[in-house]
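queue> pop job 88
queue> type: inverse folding (structure -> sequence)
queue> payload:
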């Protein structure tokens, strides 16, 4: 399955059918590549071509950079920033760049070089998980949150499709719905989102059956 097909399936389950207006024109991507002297690997390039202008999911919380905002630091191409610009996300650039390279997290501390650390092994998987996080953080029209226990997390893991983990955030998906869980031990926070109010109410009722009170955001 191509990167584009995977992205489309997830985006259309979380948001809406994609149109040509949601993608970044190839000429704009090429201009950005020429500016920084780097060609995007396929996993990232296909995402921009398909949905790089879909602000509903690309800028709901963290911010996917436009081609004019890409920058290179210490051999890393930064393509996304955390909502308070405390962290960047980037990919390594070299002569042997993989078409689905690892993603690194760049910690942004004032007056210090950006510190780059491994975040996830595959760019395409990172983007899919980030889509779910963006969705539950405002990208979906119906969202909510709750504190949960590790026992409750295990029940969710048994019922929801596991998408993956980045930076300690666990992402779960279901058609027209998403759940993300952050935290450690018994100090866990659940964030849920739904494409429609009906689906949100179904998720809320399902969680209520296992003792979780989902509060609307």
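queue> result:
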């Amino acid at each position: 399955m191509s990167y584009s097909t995977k992205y489309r399936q997830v985006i259309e389950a979380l948001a809406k059918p994609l149109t040509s207006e949601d993608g970044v024109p190839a000429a704009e991507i090429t201009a950005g590549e020429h500016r920084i002297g780097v060609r995007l690997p396929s996993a990232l390039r296909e995402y921009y071509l398909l949905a790089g202008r879909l602000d509903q999911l690309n800028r709901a919380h963290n911010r996917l950079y436009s081609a004019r905002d890409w920058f290179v630091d210490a051999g890393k191409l930064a393509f996304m920033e955390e909502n308070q610009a405390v962290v960047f996300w980037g990919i390594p650039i070299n002569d042997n760049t993989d078409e689905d390279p690892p993603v690194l997290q760049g910690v942004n501390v004032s007056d210090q070089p950006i510190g780059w650390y491994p975040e996830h092994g595959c760019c395409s998987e990172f983007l899919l998980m980030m889509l779910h996080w963006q969705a539950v953080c405002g990208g979906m029209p119906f969202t909510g949150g709750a504190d949960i226990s590790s026992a409750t997390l295990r029940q969710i893991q048994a019922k929801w499709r596991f998408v993956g983990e980045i930076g300690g955030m666990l992402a779960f998906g279901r058609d027209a719905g998403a759940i993300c869980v952050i935290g450690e031990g018994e100090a866990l926070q659940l964030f849920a989102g739904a494409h429609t109010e009906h689906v949100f109410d179904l998720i809320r009722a399902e969680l209520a059956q296992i003792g979780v009170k989902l509060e609307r955001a």
